[in-house]
Amino acid sequence: MEEAQKAQDDESSSEDWTITFCVIGEACSNIRLLSALEDRYAYECINSEEQVLRTLSETKQLLTKRQLRIYVIESFEESLFYNLKEDENIYIISSELVLTCAEKKIDIPVPRRNRPLYSQHLSSAIICFVGGTRREIQTKFSDIVHYLGGSVRKDYGDQVTHVVSFANLGEKYLTAFNMERSEILTEDWLLECWKERDNRILDVLDNDFIRIYRAKPLHNLNLFFFGAADETEQRHLHTLTLDN
């Protein structure tokens, strides 16, 4: 594991690595993908499960020889993706990322080890989650951020660009609210970002897009009213709560 990590650290600062793109599964049938790779990169198609397993078994040893294999997969929602992700030394990107880079005529970015990269929609975003939720739910949303090229911070700080609130409560939320440096958005923003992951035109960080998902003051809070004078006032308070 230390060897793989050292390889990853060295890789970003040196150009003498041999990189091979391993196209696997359904991606092998994507003619546009293969054409985009053929123009500039070394690649191979791996169709059978036996070939995939053999290639994976060689990955760690190849890293010590400065030979990096980047696996290209069609979808991040198929069983093959989850099986690959179990390997701690894996480097995974999507076919969509390759096609986007080819369209923009830029180099394909090397993903971080065991952090699959689907697109770069959130490449300039540093996100902090607030409001508390179950660990498995937060992990799901953290994965979305990473798949789209963004970063996640456990604590709120000056570098955080966007806050995703599961509920407007807690110390981190109050800090972000009072500092007024970051957009505070609902979790629906990230869900929509993932839904639009193949949309090469949409800028998910654009103000007009973000405005739709700004968290209202009472986002996901449960309020209880005591001592309301009459039914009319209760209805008024109920309406105010729903609007905010």
UniProtKB/TrEMBL annotation:
GO cellular component, one term: cell cortex
Gene Ontology process terms (BP): mitotic cytokinesis; nervous system development; regulation of cytokinesis, actomyosin contractile ring assembly
One Gene Ontology molecular-function label: guanyl-nucleotide exchange factor activity
SMART domains: BRCT
Domain of life: Eukaryota
SUPFAM superfamilies hit by this protein: BRCT domain (SSF52113)
Chain ranges of the BRCT domain: 117-197
Pfam family, one: BRCT
InterPro entries to which the protein is assigned, alphabetical: BRCT_dom, BRCT_dom_sf, Ect2
Membrane-spanning residues: none
PANTHER family: PROTEIN ECT2
Protein name: BRCT domain-containing protein
